[in-house]
Specification:
Blueprint lengths: L3 H14 L4 H11 L4 H16 L1 H11 L6 H16 L4 H9 L4 H16 L1 H4 L7 H4 L4 H11 L1 H11 L5 E5 L21 E4 L5 H5 L3 E3 L5 H7 L7 E3 L6 H10 L5 E5 L5 H10 L6 E4 L14 E7 L14 H4 L2 H18 L3 E11 L8 H10 L3 E9 L1 H4 L4 E8 L5
Parallel strand pairs: 4-5, 4-7, 5-6, 7-8
Antiparallel strand pairs: 1-2, 1-3, 8-10, 9-10
Helix pairs in contact: 1-2, 1-3, 1-5, 2-3, 3-5, 4-5, 5-6, 5-7, 6-7, 10-11, 13-14
The protein binds S-adenosylmethionine.
Length: 411
Amino acid sequence: MKSPRRAAVSILRAWAKGHVYAESLIERHASRNNLSASDRGLLNAIVLGVLRHRRLLDHWIGELRKGKLDHETRDILRVGLCQLLILQLPDHAAVFETVNLGKSPVRGLINAVMRKAAATKKSLLDLSELPPAIAHSHPDWLYNRWRKAFGPEATLELMAFNNLPAPTVARINPLAPEATDPPAGSNESLPAGYFQIDGPIPTEWLTKGTIYITDPATRHGIELLAPQPGEQILDACAAPGGKAFLIAAAGGSGQGLTCTDSNEKRLPRLRENLSRLHITPDSIQAHDWTQPAPTKWHGAFDAILLDVPCSNTGVFRRRVDVRWRLRPQDITDLTRIQQSILEQALPCLKPGGRLVYSTCSIEAEENDELLQQFVELHPDWQITETRQALPQIDGTDGAFAAVLRRRSSFD
Ligand SMILES: C[S@@+](CC[C@H](N)C(=O)[O-])C[C@H]1O[C@@H](n2cnc3c(N)ncnc32)[C@H](O)[C@@H]1O
């Protein structure tokens, strides 16, 4: 079995080559190799630490060594410097373990870089003269975009927040036959029904479906949707089921709930999650909402949730690698899909029904601006309520949710 440090280097190589989320690669490796809790913790801290601080780590590598590096040696140095300068592990362990990760021809180079880093730690850790996007490891285009949208101070706070480890927050499942009592003090400053889990998640809670791991910001869309018992509700972009769970929890059961998702591969996980959570929706099926809805769904729903695919810019603290994958054009492309999902879903509302549009993006282009453009093009629809959670202000994931209703003739 590989050491967590060696596994971290392989995972970073696999991440750079493919399109798999870092969290999934870590999970896959940890369960295949049956890692102990402490090895898993170290692997997680190193891989997530390298991905969060990638730009800063590369800046340090550039300061410590001039000249080209092959991909593997760079990843080894990133893993080493992350231990030394980000995780602040003892110098001797960080240097020794990192040198051992390299093949013999590059060990001398790794040794020299790591020793120099240990000797100049204080000056390397002084980030005061660095451009903020390097110090906080974000791409320039996002930094510039957020500066325009939120201002310089808030952008610094946001970037710093994105680099903090995310707490594990659980929502109690009121539909589970057995109750979970949150440990004392674990729900201070969290909304009712939520509590924080420090340390490993008790597997019993997961297998018995007494909790679901989710950030409190996910509740905004469901509070606006306000599901009522007996209603027909569509969760159009439902996988893996976090919001479907909140809908069922709020409405008292999965009765009347239809869940769809365009990605068939995500449906088994959605089914498993809901079944574990003691929820039996009316139906779970594949549908691409950029295409016209089947006629059976026209005018069929009291309420529709569109938790649309988005840029995920509100959840960089959890999705640590997205900032390196996302391109400005992706945001424009996503808005086309979001608009189209909205257009196709509206005919499925009953007269007087409500639609909640939600994202975990903090980009106005995917949120307010998109809906403003929509109501300008469709003057018979209005936005009746909006919520926006911003990480740097609310201390939660970023989230946006808004209610759309058709204007009545009295408006
Ligand atoms: C933000 S995630 C939904 C998260 C889910 N609501 C939850 O709380 O667990 C967006 C989902 O939309 C799905 N999706 C993407 N394009 C879609 C489309 N055109 N029609 C339906 N679903 C789509 C994706 O497969 C993904 O599962």
